[in-house]
Design brief:
Chains A, B: Keywords: ATP-binding, Cobalamin biosynthesis, Cytoplasm, Nucleotide-binding, Porphyrin biosynthesis, Transferase. Chains A, B: This is Corrinoid adenosyltransferase. Chains A, B: Pathway: Cofactor biosynthesis; adenosylcobalamin biosynthesis; adenosylcobalamin from cob(II)yrinate a,c-diamide: step 2/7. Chains A, B: Its EC number is 2.5.1.17. Two copies of one chain form a homodimer. The first copy, chain A, is α/β, with parallel strands linked by helices. The first copy, chain A, has a six-stranded parallel β-sheet with strand order 3-2-4-5-1-6, with helices on both faces. In chain A, about 40% of the residues are buried. At the A-B interface, α1, β1, α2, α3 and α4 of A face α1, β1, α2, α3 and α4 of B.
Chain lengths: ~210, ~210
Amino acid sequence: MTDATADADLNAKHNAKMAKIQTARAKMMAERQIEKGLLIVNTGTGKGKTTAALGMVCRAIGHGQKVAVIQFVKGALKTGEKVVFDAFPDQVEFKPMGEGFTWDTQDRARDIAVAREAWDAVKARIADPEIDMVVADELNIVLRYEYLPVDEVVAAIVGRPEGKHVIVTGRNAPQALIDAADLVTDMTLVKHPFRSGVKAQAGIEF
Amino acid sequence: MTDATADADLNAKHNAKMAKIQTARAKMMAERQIEKGLLIVNTGTGKGKTTAALGMVCRAIGHGQKVAVIQFVKGALKTGEKVVFDAFPDQVEFKPMGEGFTWDTQDRARDIAVAREAWDAVKARIADPEIDMVVADELNIVLRYEYLPVDEVVAAIVGRPEGKHVIVTGRNAPQALIDAADLVTDMTLVKHPFRSGVKAQAGIEF
């Protein structure tokens, strides 16, 4: 074969393969007719749990939806996204409820009270028919430390109004939450710059 | 022990543990002094690769940084984030370069030309001293189909100006890119609603 015919052959094979994928995808898409409010869990030790939730908030904003973001563990560093939320005051409510990381407060009784307050805020947003999406950022951390009973949290989320999306982030998601979820992603750490001595930087970690 | 003393004991143990974690974290943070432009790769079969990049764009916006987002594979559905980008026209440049998914075009020659055009756009943004962060969305897909040579792409990213962050998304990141990266996360699929017949929904998939 000349180069030109080899290339034409490659193109033809590729195009046939793509046509096949296209047909399979169209079939798959046609089979998906259910529309429902999802429980989404972003867990794992890698990066991207909160940032992926933020990305979904961006998409929801773009579709005119209303979103509430409740932060259970206030990272002093997580500040960048606030500027974006503030640009859409009618669509996004942002509530940082935690008062610093738990290893900084060293006061379990206060941590539990703050967790309860944040959870009450989440429940109120879940019940609010005006709100389309509720992000419970780092709720998994609070569950891990048993500041809130897992059963109570899962039951309230499972019993949410139809059509409401709830996104829960944080490592160590409890199994009961994973079982109840529609979409679960484990952000798996492959490589992290902290391990090479790189410090937290604007735009990346905060 | 009475309930009250048991509780006091639990609190004391917890607080001591948190103090220990706090000390370890402070030491770790002090050791991290390097500030550098990162190559970040979001790969894997799960959700969150592009949305996590969007979340980082939000943070960068909040810190007054300039960002370019180049989309190699235009998902007809990915439209929500544009509204957010458009709210910060001086900070975000958004360029959807692909002309539909490859399985829709079925034209390998055209796909290669479009990939080359998008890559040229990425290279120009990497070279531009005004831009702090460049997102090459779904570049991995294009590399997977060999529409661009991996060596050329990796060399150009590795040779980027100091301080420039580059984020590459898409499943099947090539090993050479992972080797060159500072931060790699594999978004691992645990559960996906498509498998239960749930269709793509506004705010979640687009």
